[in-house]
Design brief:
The protein is an alpha/beta fold. The protein has 14 helices and 13 strands. Helix 3 crosses helix 7. Bound molecules: pyridoxal-5'-phosphate and zinc ion. Zinc ion binds next to loops.
Length: about 425
């Protein structure tokens, strides 16, 4: 199926050929991949995707390329895939009870090949790199993008260069980037500084940029939404709740829903709630105070994946929230880690940033913005194993310097090696 596509600036509307290598409009705005869907039969597409569900091998067994008509027009030999996606949708269990929501679900994107949703964008971005005959790819990253990019570059024979901010990046992520062979450059500065530098480097050295400013990354990430809706037999929930850092993922969700709506595959529009950490909250400030966009100077949060003060995709994300009549909420460090303890103890588990989904859902339910019987799908963006330090710190209650208490800590106990001591510990 041939669908005409082109690039369009989200700020001024100027269009460019889809084959033109660029990440920004001449005006500085970021670009969208646009498709002419006017001649496309939504019912036909839906039937095609249903037919592909559960395929055992091949490109379309991927939870991204199953939807390839709306992902990227690329020949099979250019597609770089690790069969990403196909992640589970869980009932929230005891975490739902804690949040006061009776129909809460979690889409666990931490179950992707490198442990975060970034693989969905990366399979598409890496394939675009192949279309542009790139030999080297680069990104600035708080961790998960670099882990993903290093893997996808390695499986497809490209070199990868990673710019990480100074200070701690979660060990699970740094370990992956090194292990997959990414050239890892730790720079003196925060994520936003790294982001500025990598754009300059890519331009000067002809390296292909794989941050979410790259419009093809966003296209791949739309598949989270497609897959959730397919798992729900196309029954649209009332809310999607999603963490917001660089704001690419919420942008992708909005774009996915707009396209499905345009195709008539869905008629109801779910509300998108973007949740930011209170120490890295530029979109929240804009939304609640009706002020123009302003970056946060020194972003700070234990949820390092969203420790971003100057998100590149804020315009696209805001468009998604407005179009869906959704909202933006912020959560404190304590709220993030308490929600994480509850999500983990429910047996589901995710890294700190992901837990903004639960913390935010609970907060919006407490405020009455989300009704307690409404159907809510939270996105869990990364795996619980990514950041063991945060988990151990909470359960040993040693995060006091960050102002976080181990409210629901499950402390390890040290005992002598005797039956008596075990009995005492178990209270039997
Ligand atoms: C990248 C990432 C986010 C933030 O997503 P954005 O698209 O940057 O808003 C949240 N959680 C995890 C685990 C991530 O890796
Ligand atoms: Zn423009």
């Amino acid at each position: 199926m041939k669908i005409e596509s082109y690039l369009q600036c989200v700020r001024c509307g100027k269009t460019y050929d889809i084959g033109e290598l660029r990440y920004n409009c001449d005006c500085g705005g970021i670009l969208d991949v646009k498709r002419d869907l006017s001649q496309v039969d939504g019912e036909f597409l839906k039937a095609l995707w249903e037919q592909r569900w559960g395929m055992k091998r091949g490109i379309e067994s991927s939870g991204v390329w199953r939807y390839r008509e709306l992902i990227l027009d690329a020949p099979d030999d250019k597609i770089v895939t690790r069969q990403e996606g196909n992640t589970r949708l869980y009932a929230a269990g005891s975490a739902g009870t804690w949040a006061g929501l009776s129909n809460l679900y979690f889409k666990h994107e931490g179950e992707n090949p490198t442990g975060s949703f970034k693989d969905r964008g990366m399979t598409c971005g890496a394939s675009a790199a192949k279309l542009f005959n790139a030999k080297t790819v680069a990104c600035a990253s708080t961790g998960n993008t670099s882990a993903s990019m290093a893997s996808y570059a390695a499986v497809s024979g490209m070199k990868s260069v990673i710019f990480i901010p100074e200070g701690k990046i979660a060990y699970g992520k740094l370990a992956q980037a090194l292990a997959y062979g990414g050239i890892t450059l730790q720079i003196e500065g925060n994520f936003d500084d790294a982001m500025t530098l990598v754009q300059q480097v890519c331009k000067e050295l002809g390296i292909y940029l794989l941050n979410s400013i790259n419009p093809f990354r966003i296209e791949g990430q739309k598949a989270i939404t497609f897959e959730i809706l397919q798992q729900l037999d196309w029954q649209v929930p009332d809310w999607f709740v999603i963490p917001g850092g660089n704001l690419g993922n919420s942008s992708a969700m909005g774009k996915a829903l707009m396209e499905l709506h345009e195709l008539g595959i869905i008629t109801k529009i779910p509300k998108i709630a973007v949740i930011q950490a209170s120490g890295a909250n530029p979109l929240y400030t804009m939304w609640t105070e009706h002020t123009p966009y302003q970056a946060v100077k020194n972003p700070e949060t234990i949820a390092t994946a969203i420790k971003i003060g100057n998100p590149v995709s804020w315009e696209k994300s805001l468009r998604a929230v407005e179009w869906s009549k959704g909202t933006v909420e912020q959560v404190t460090e304590q709220e993030i880690m308490d929600a994480k303890a509850k999500l983990d103890a429910a047996g589901i588990g995710a890294e700190p940033a992901s837990c903004c989904s639960l913390a935010g859902a609970k907060k919006l339910a407490d405020k009455g913005v989300i009704g307690k019987d409404e159907t809510v799908v939270g996105i869990l963006t990364g795996n619980i194993l990514k950041d063991p330090d945060a988990v151990i710190g909470y359960h040993k209650d040693t995060l006091g310097d960050k102002g976080i208490r181990g409210t629901f800590a499950n402390r390890p106990q040290q005992i002598p090696p005797t039956l008596e001591a075990v009995k005492k510990a178990l209270g039997v």
